[in-house]
Design brief:
- This protein has helices at 31-43, 76-88, 113-117, 125-134, 138-147, 151-160, 172-180, 193-200, 203-215, 223-234, 241-252, 315-342, and strands at 46-54, 60-63, 69-70, 97-100, 121-124, 220-221, 270-277, 280-281, 284-285, 288-295, 301-311.
- It is α+β, with helices and mostly antiparallel strands.
- The strands form four sheets. It has a five-stranded antiparallel beta sheet, sandwiched between helices.
- The longest helix has 28 residues, at 315-342.
- It is globular, with a radius of gyration of 20 Å.
Length: 343
C-alpha cells in the first residue's frame, strides 16, 4: 500500500546566515586554483556546487557555491556535530547505551538492520556515531539524532552557531519518502517494500515530487556554507578540543566514497570526510556529494565540498571531478609552498 504525497509545506528548517562584521579581507585564493575550479565546474555535465576554503589563511573559492544542493547523507555531519556538542555540555555521554528495535528501522543503507531483525541491538551512542559517519548507516544516524533531542536539536545547533545556508529535515524516513512522492509507513523499512511502493506510483506523480525536491531541496545546503563549517570545526570553534579531534578521527575512517574526494589524495595527505548519495529517477540522480577536511603533510588544512545537485553522467565521471578538485587543491598548496621555500 502507498499514499500519495500531500502537498503541504515542509516542516521548519534551520537556515541561519552569519551576520556580517567589519573584518579584514581574507587572503585571496591562489589564482591558478580559482581558474581550475571554474574550469571543472563549467565542464561538468550537470549542476554542481564546489567550494574550497583554507582553514589557516581564510580564503575561499568555488563554483556555484551559493546554490542550495541536496545534502543526502552529508546531513549526518550536522547530527554528529550536535551529538558531540551534547557530549561537551554533559547532556549525554558517548558511553550511553540505547536499544534499537524494529520501529527504529529506516530504509536504503542500514547495515545495523541485520542485528535489529535478529532480536534487537543494544549499542552505545559512540557506536551509532561511528556507524552513521563511517558506513553512512541511516538507522544508526536517525537513532543518534533522536537520542540527542531529534531534528530540533540539530537545527538549533545550526542556528546557534550561525552556520549559514544549511537546512536539516526530519530524518531519513521523512526525507526519502517525500522525495519519492510517498508518506512514510513503517512497513517500508523491511526488505524491498519501499521500492515496491515507489514503483507503484504513477510516474508523473513521482517525477513531480522528484523535481520539487531538486528545485528547493528540503535538506539543501550550499557548498560555501559547508566549507565554512568544516573550517570552523577544524579550527576548534564548534566543539571542545577532545570532541573536535574525535570527530575528525572518525571521519578519517570513513568507508564510503573511497574514490570520491579521497581518490585525489597524494601520499602524505589525509582526508576526514562524509559522503552523500541521493535517489535516482530515470538516469538522473539528485545528490552525489563528498565533503571533508583535507590536510597536507606540513599540517596545512583545506575544507572541500563537491555537491553534485543533478546529473546523469556516469559514476566515474563524477568521481573524476571530485578527484580533480582535490588534485587542484594539492597542486596549489605545493606551488605556494615551493614559492615560499624559494624566497
Amino acid at each position: 500500500m502507498f499514499a500519495l504525497l500531500l502537498l503541504s509545506a515542509p516542516p521548519p528548517v534551520a537556515t541561519a546566515f552569519a551576520q556580517s562584521a567589519p573584518v579584514a579581507a581574507p587572503a585571496r585564493a591562489p589564482a591558478g586554483l580559482e581558474q581550475r575550479i571554474d574550469q571543472l565546474g563549467q565542464s561538468f555535465d550537470g549542476t554542481v556546487g564546489i567550494a574550497v576554503r583554507s582553514v589557516g589563511d581564510g580564503w575561499r573559492t568555488g563554483w556555484r557555491e551559493t546554490e542550495l544542493c541536496p545534502q543526502q547523507s552529508v546531513s549526518k555531519f550536522w547530527v554528529a556535530l550536535a551529538a558531540m556538542e551534547a557530549v561537551d555540555r554533559g547532556q549525554v555521554s558517548l558511553g550511553d547505551r540505547v536499544t534499537l528495535r524494529r520501529d527504529d528501522l529506516t530504509l536504503f543503507h542500514q547495515p545495523i538492520a541485520s542485528r535489529i531483525l535478529g532480536g534487537g541491538a543494544t549499542v552505545t551512542l559512540e557506536e551509532l556515531l561511528v556507524e552513521a559517519l563511517t558506513k553512512s548507516d541511516n538507522t544508526a544516524n536517525d537513532k543518534l539524532m533522536r537520542s540527542i533531542g531529534g531534528p530540533t536539536a540539530v537545527r538549533s545547533f545550526i542556528s546557534r552557531h550561525q552556520l549559514g545556508a544549511i537546512r536539516f529535515y526530519d530524518g531519513e524516513r521523512a526525507l526519502q519518502s517525500r522525495i519519492a512522492g510517498l508518506i512514510w509507513s513503517q512497513n517500508y523499512s523491511i526488505g524491498d517494500a519501499f521500492y515496491k511502493a515507489r514503483e507503484a506510483l504513477p510516474l508523473a506523480a513521482r517525477r513531480a515530487a522528484f523535481e520539487r525536491y531538486l528545485a528547493d531541496p528540503y535538506d539543501g545546503a550550499t557548498a560555501g556554507a559547508i566549507v565554512d563549517a568544516l573550517a570552523r570545526l577544524k579550527r576548534g570553534e564548534l566543539l571542545s578540543p577532545a570532541s573536535t579531534a574525535r570527530l575528525l578521527t572518525i571521519m578519517g575512517n570513513t568507508k564510503t566514497g573511497a574514490n570520491r574526494l579521497k581518490g585525489g589524495l597524494k601520499p602524505g595527505w589525509s582526508l576526514s570526510h562524509k559522503t552523500g548519495t541521493g535517489q535516482v529517477l530515470g538516469a538522473t540522480q539528485a545528490g552525489y556529494n563528498d565533503i571533508g577536511v583535507l590536510t597536507a603533510p606540513d599540517g596545512a588544512s583545506y575544507a572541500v565540498a563537491v555537491m553534485i545537485k543533478r546529473t546523469a553522467t556516469p559514476l566515474e565521471v563524477r568521481m573524476t571531478l571530485m578527484n580533480d578538485v582535490v588534485r587542484a587543491v594539492i597542486a596549489a598548496h605545493e606551488q605556494r609552498a615551493a614559492g615560499r621555500s624559494a624566497l
